[in-house]
Design a protein that fits this description.
The protein is α/β, with parallel strands linked by helices and 352 residues long. 64% of the residues lie in helices and 7% in strands. The chain has three domains: 4-129, Globin-like (Orthogonal Bundle), CATH 1.10.490.20; 140-217, Orthogonal Bundle (Methyltransferase, Methionine Synthase (B12-binding Domains), Chain A, domain 1), CATH 1.10.1240.10; 227-351, Cobalamin-binding domain (Rossmann fold). A five-stranded parallel β-sheet has the order 2-1-3-4-5, with helices on both faces. The chain is globular, with a radius of gyration of 22 Å. The two termini are 31 Å apart. The structure holds cobalamin.
């Protein structure tokens, strides 16, 4: 994170991160002391999971502090609440745990710095206490496609996608209107404990298979050369379907695209930008706790490849309106359709 307030918030976040394991251990031990029945019910494994969960909460908390983003951690609390409630853990326990973590984190900060933390923790605690927003089911075509993915039904999934093409939709439409909501639905089913992690992985693998089958059918803009774009998921990020959809969509719009996948080391991205003589870098970040890495990457690219424009996207950047500006990017696009039009302002012919 770069200047002024952003740098200050980042410093506070780093201080909490550096004490993460100690805070998580102390808070978890205290929690199990307060609730001795939990130890009986969940045993040593439960204590270990409690510690891991506390670390996870702190990862999201520090990312929200660094981004100065109160709703982001409240959204996370709503998500964690749904996850835990679906697994038989009442929201009051999560609220208690978050409050404890907030207090322990505040204790290692200077008094003045606590104001950057407390509203974020408070918003998350109240998100655990108010009625849960409904978790909506998708329309039927999407639900059926999601079921085909979840049951590993390759032919079924492929046929549904092809049927949409036969009805006149483009590959981009299928990505955006069918596959993306189906993946969101799969996430919702996992979050609410209706499917296992194995099913989610099966569905993800199959979704990538379907995309690979559709790729040759992508209509390309043959007459225009917009230049070369590199698209990658930031280091630590494992989600890559969204970035791949963006990469394919840019390619269909006349870009030469190098898609590097997710969890890319930053030096590797720089190497690719130079080798490919790219004029655009697309950075994907889904998980809030990877945001600081994205900011580092943007800074590194600014210093080492000043001619490259940077467009960011992914769920982490959707948390607050102007986060991408603060992070130092040139542009943000919320989805593949927007990415295509936003990227055009950075193309060769626009720059010339
Ligand atoms: C598949 C999946 C995984 C797979 C990913 C495998 C892969 N090869 O991609 C695996 C199993 C690895 C995984 C891991 C995790 N996941 Co996950 N995962 C998902 C899931 C179900 C689908 C992701 C997806 O493909 N979405 C569809 C794409 C098309 O949508 P998209 O990413 O938003 O992309 C669009 C836009 O954002 C934008 N965009 C994206 N990138 C870019 C880049 C640029 C440049 C631009 C301009 C635009 C842009 O355009 C895209 C197309 O329109 C989501 C559910 C969801 N809501 O997305 C959960 C989800 C994202 N995961 C979640 C979680 C918690 C995790 C883990 C932390 C779980 C864990 N405890 O380990 C880890 C984190 C790993 C990490 N370090 O990154 C949560 C996040 C919750 C939160 N509050 O942040 C979600 C929302 C699930 C849920 N509902 O609970 N996950």
């Amino acid at each position: 994170m770069t200047t002024g307030l952003l740098q200050k918030r980042s410093g506070i976040a780093n201080r909490i991160q550096s004490g993460k394991e100690r805070i998580a251990r102390e808070v978890n031990d205290e929690f199990f002391l307060r609730h001795p029945d939990w130890k009986e019910r969940y045993g040593e494994r439960g204590i270990r999971r409690g510690f891991e969960d506390a670390c996870f909460h702190l990862d999201f908390l520090t990312a929200a502090v660094a981004a100065g983003n109160i709703p982001a951690f409240a959204d996370y609390a709503t998500w964690a609440r749904r996850m835990l409630e679906a697994r038989g853990i009442a929201p009051a326990y999560l609220a208690e745990n978050l409050r404890q973590l907030g207090e322990a984190a505040a204790n290692i900060l200077e008094k003045d710095d606590r104001e950057f933390l407390s509203p974020i923790v408070l918003a998350a605690v109240s998100a655990c206490e108010r009625p849960l927003p409904p978790s909506e089911s998708p329309e039927s075509a999407v639900a059926i496609f999601a079921q085909a993915l979840l049951t590993g039904n390759r032919n079924g999934a492929l046929n549904i996608a092809r049927a949409h093409l036969n009805e006149g939709q483009t590959v981009k439409d299928v990505y955006f209107k069918l596959m993306q909501p189906a993946m969101y639905e799969i996430g919702r089913l996992w979050e609410t404990n209706q499917i296992t992690v194995a099913r989610e992985h099966l569905a993800t693998a199959l979704a990538q298979f379907v995309m690979a089958q559709l790729f040759p059918l992508l209509i390309r803009e043959e007459t225009i050369d917009r230049g070369t774009a590199v698209v990658a998921g930031v280091q630590g990020e494992l989600h890559q379907i969204g970035a791949l959809m963006v990469a394919d969509s840019l390619e269909s719009d006349g870009w030469q695209v190098s898609f590097l996948g997710s969890n890319m080391p930053h030096w590797g991205i720089l190497e690719a930008l130079r080798q490919e003589k790219a004029c655009l870098l697309g950075i994907s970040t889904s998980i809030l706790f990877n945001l600081p890495k994205a900011v580092d990457l943007i800074q590194t690219v600014r210093n080492s490849c000043p001619g490259v424009s940077i467009m960011v996207g992914g769920a982490a950047f959707k948390a607050t309106n102007d986060l991408w500006k603060e992070a130092g990017a040139d542009a943000f696009a919320p989805d593949l359709m927007a990415a295509v039009s936003v990227a055009r302002q950075f193309s060769k012919e626009t720059r010339a």
